[in-house]
Specification:
By secondary structure, the protein is α/β, with parallel strands linked by helices. Helices cover about 50% and strands about 10% of the residues.
Length: about 575
C-alpha cells in the first residue's frame, strides 16, 4: 500500500463534529487524522481506543496503517495480524498481503490474498493481488489460474483485461509456452498500443522461438515508444547476434552503455562480442565486469586477500589461481601459470577433482590442490581467477601464448594401457583412429546450439576408419544408438582427464563439438576438428578455420543457424580424403 492508498482508507468516514470516547468513534476520528496527515493525533486516538477496548480490531488495523506510514513494515505486519486475530475482514487481509509482498515474503502474502478471495470471491482486485503474489513466489501455474479468474470478473474493464493478458503472457513465457504467450502479448498490445511492455514481451517470446527477424521490429517499436527502455535494446542485441549481425549488436550495446555505464550485464554482453571480433584489449577489460554483477561465478570463494589482475608486483608473493568457470576454460588458460612463476610468484593452483591428476605436476605450480581439499588452503598473498589471466597479461591476438603441447605428456603406462585396449577392439593399426564427442554440458546456456544429436553425427561414421567415443555423458536415447553403431565405447574406463589425455594420445584425429575435450586435445597438440554453431563462443573468433589458441585445431562452422548437415558433410568429405591419403 502506498501513502495515498493508506490515506484513502480514511475516506470511509468524515471527521466527527465532536470528540467521542467510544472505541469506534475514536477509530473514526483516528482515520480522519490519518487522512489529513496528522499521524500523531491518529496514534493518540488509537491508544485511547485500545485503552477502552484492548481487543479493538479496527484500532489494531489503524496502528498497522500508521506503522506503514512510518516505513516500519515489520510492525505493520504485527498490527495487521493482531487485527485479524479479532475478526477477519477483507481490508485487513489485503493490507497484510500487500506489506508481506513489500517484504518479499511472497508465500505468506499468497496465503493472505487467498483468504481474501475466499472471503470475497467476486473481488477482481483481490484476485489480481493473489495472482501477483503467486507469480512473485514462482508458483506460475497457480498465478495463471488467478489471472484467468480476473479476466472472468473484469472482461469489460480494459485496464483489468490488459493486466490479465500482460501477466498471463509473461507467465506463459516463463513456462516456455511461447506460442500461447505471443497470443496474450498481442491481446495486451491491442488494448494498450502505446505501452512498450507488450512489445518487448513479444520480442522476447519470438526470440525464444528463434524467430529473430520477426522480433526486431517489435523491439524497435519499444525504443520508439520509450527510448530509455534499455532492456529492449539488450534484447535487440541478442537477436542481432543470433542473426550474425555482430557489428550492429556491438553498436546497440555501446549505446546502452553510454546511458547505463554501471550496468555490468551490458558490459559482459559487450565483452563477449568484442572478444569474438578480435578486439582483445577492450574485450578482456569489459569481461571483468562479471565481478560486480549477478554473473559472479557462484563457486568462486570470497577471499579476504586482494585479487591480482596484472597490476601487482608478484616477485616473492604466493598467488592462488582458482578456477572460476568451466573445465575447458581452466584447460585453455592454465597456460599462463608458468608465466606467473617466471615473474617470481609462487603459484598455488586449485582445480576440480577430475583435472587434478592431469595438472598435479604442471610446470610453474608449487602446489596443486583438488577442489575436494580446498576447504583448508595454505597461506597466500594474492588470488586470481584462471579466466582473468588473459586480462592480467594484457593478451592480444598476436601475443597469445600458443606453444603446444603445454600440458604434461600423459603417463607412458596409461598410454600403453589405452593402446592395448584399442588394439583388442580394433586390431588393425593401419586404420585411422578417430575420437568423437557430440555433446557438451547439458547445463550450459548454449548447449542447444553447440551440441549435435548423435543421430546426425552418425553420418560421418560410414567410412573405413575406427571410431572411438569420447562422450562421457549420454543423452536420452544415445545408449541405444551407440550400441547399434560402429562406434567403440570404452568411456566407462575414463575416470579423469589424465585417462582421457592418454586415450587422445592413441588417436589419429579428434572430431568434437565445443566442449572440454576440444581444449584438452588442443593443449596436447593433437589433430582436432571442432564443429561450431553459427554463433560461436568468443574464443573461436569469426571467419577463420584455424585457432590462434591451438595450432593443431581446425574449425568447421555452421553457415546457417541450426543447420549441422553441411558441417557434417564437409567434415565427412575431409575425413574421406584423409583416409584415402593414408592408404
Amino acid at each position: 500500500m502506498n501513502r495515498q492508498e493508506r490515506r484513502a482508507a480514511a475516506r470511509k468516514s468524515g471527521i466527527p463534529k465532536s470528540p467521542a470516547s467510544a472505541p469506534g468513534s475514536l477509530y473514526e476520528l483516528g482515520l480522519a487524522h490519518l487522512r489529513n496527515g496528522r499521524l500523531i493525533d491518529a496514534q493518540v486516538c488509537c491508544q485511547q481506543a485500545l485503552a477502552l477496548d484492548p481487543a479493538h480490531a479496527d484500532s489494531f488495523f489503524l496502528m498497522g496503517l500508521l506503522a506503514l506510514e512510518a516505513g516500519n513494515c515489520d510492525h505493520a505486519v504485527n498490527w495487521f495480524v493482531r487485527a485479524l486475530g479479532q475478526i477477519v475482514k477483507l481490508e485487513y487481509l489485503v493490507a497484510l498481503g500487500t506489506v508481506l509482498r513489500r517484504l518479499q515474503r511472497f508465500d505468506e502474502a499468497s496465503k493472505a490474498f487467498d483468504k481474501a478471495v475466499q472471503l470475497k470471491p467476486d473481488s477482481p482486485q483481490a484476485w489480481k493481488s493473489l495472482a501477483d503474489a503467486l507469480g512473485n513466489a514462482g508458483r506460475t501455474e497457480e498465478s495463471l489460474v488467478a489471472w484467468e479468474q480476473v479476466l472472468k470478473l473484469d472482461a469489460s474493464d480494459k485496464e483489468a483485461a490488459y493486466q490479465c493478458f500482460e501477466k498471463r503472457g509473461h507467465l506463459l513465457h516463463g513456462l516456455k509456452r511461447f506460442e500461447e504467450a505471443i497470443e496474450n502479448h498481442l491481446k495486451a498490445h491491442a488494448l494498450d498500443p502505446t505501452n512498450p511492455i507488450p512489445c518487448n514481451n513479444m520480442g522476447a517470446s519470438l526470440q525464444s522461438l528463434r524467430r529473430d527477424e520477426e522480433a526486431l521490429p517489435w523491439l524497435d517499436r519499444v525504443t520508439a515508444l520509450k527510448p530509455d527502455f534499455h532492456t529492449a535494446s539488450r534484447n535487440k542485441a541478442v537477436s542481432l547476434i543470433a542473426l550474425g549481425r555482430f557489428d550492429e549488436a556491438i553498436a546497440v550495446l555501446r549505446h546502452v552503455r553510454t546511458h547505463e555505464p554501471d550496468n555490468a550485464e551490458v558490459e559482459w554482453d559487450l565483452s563477449l562480442l568484442l572478444l569474438m571480433a578480435g578486439d582483445f584489449e577492450a574485450g578482456w577489460t569489459a569481461r571483468e565486469a562479471r565481478w560486480r554483477s549477478r554473473m559472479r561465478p557462484a563457486s568462486y570463494p570470497h577471499f579476504s586477500q586482494a585479487m591480482s589482475l596484472g597490476d601487482t608486483e608478484l616477485a616473492g608473493k604466493t598467488v592462488l589461481i582458482q578456477e572460476d568457470e568451466g573445465l575447458g576454460d581452466t584447460l585453455q588458460f592454465v597456460r599462463y601459470v608458468p608465466m606467473l612463476a617466471a615473474r617470481g610468484a609462487r603459484v598455488i593452483l586449485v582445480v576440480r577433482d577430475q583435472l587434478y591428476p592431469l595438472l598435479s605436476d604442471y610446470p610453474g605450480v608449487a602446489e596443486c590442490i583438488p577442489q575436494k581439499s580446498a576447504g583448508s588452503l595454505p597461506p597466500f598473498d594474492l588470488h586470481c581467477p584462471v579466466c582473468s589471466l588473459p586480462f592480467a597479461f594484457g593478451t592480444r591476438l598476436d601475443t597469445i601464448p600458443a606453444a603446444i603441447p603445454y600440458l604434461p605428456a600423459p603417463s607412458a603406462d596409461l598410454v600403453r594401457a589405452w593402446q592395448d585396449r584399442l588394439d583388442r577392439q580394433i586390431g588393425d593399426r593401419e586404420k585411422l583412429r578417430v575420437g568423437l564427442v557430440w555433446a557438451g554440458n547439458p547445463q550450459h546456456d548454449n548447449d542447444h546450439n553447440r551440441s549435435i544429436p548423435l543421430q546426425t553425427l552418425l553420418r560421418i561414421t560410414d567410412q573405413a576408419a575406427a571410431f572411438v567415443s569420447l562422450q562421457k555423458d549420454l543423452r536420452t536415447g544415445d545408449d541405444t544408438l551407440l550400441a547399434q553403431s560402429r562406434i567403440i565405447d570404452l568411456t566407462s574406463q575414463l575416470r579423469d582427464f589424465a585417462e582421457t589425455a592418454a586415450l587422445l594420445s592413441c588417436l589419429d584425429l579428434v572430431i568434437t563439438v565445443d566442449t572440454s575435450v576440444a581444449h584438452l586435445a588442443g593443449a596436447l597438440g593433437r589433430p582436432t576438428w571442432v564443429l561450431l554453431p553459427f554463433v560461436p563462443d568468443y574464443r573461436w573468433l569469426l571467419n577463420r578455420e584455424d585457432s590462434p589458441w591451438y595450432p593443431t585445431l581446425r574449425l568447421f562452422r555452421q553457415r546457417e543457424r541450426g543447420d549441422w548437415k553441411p558441417v557434417i558433410e564437409r567434415a565427412g568429405s575431409e575425413l574421406a580424403g584423409r583416409i584415402a591419403a593414408r592408404r
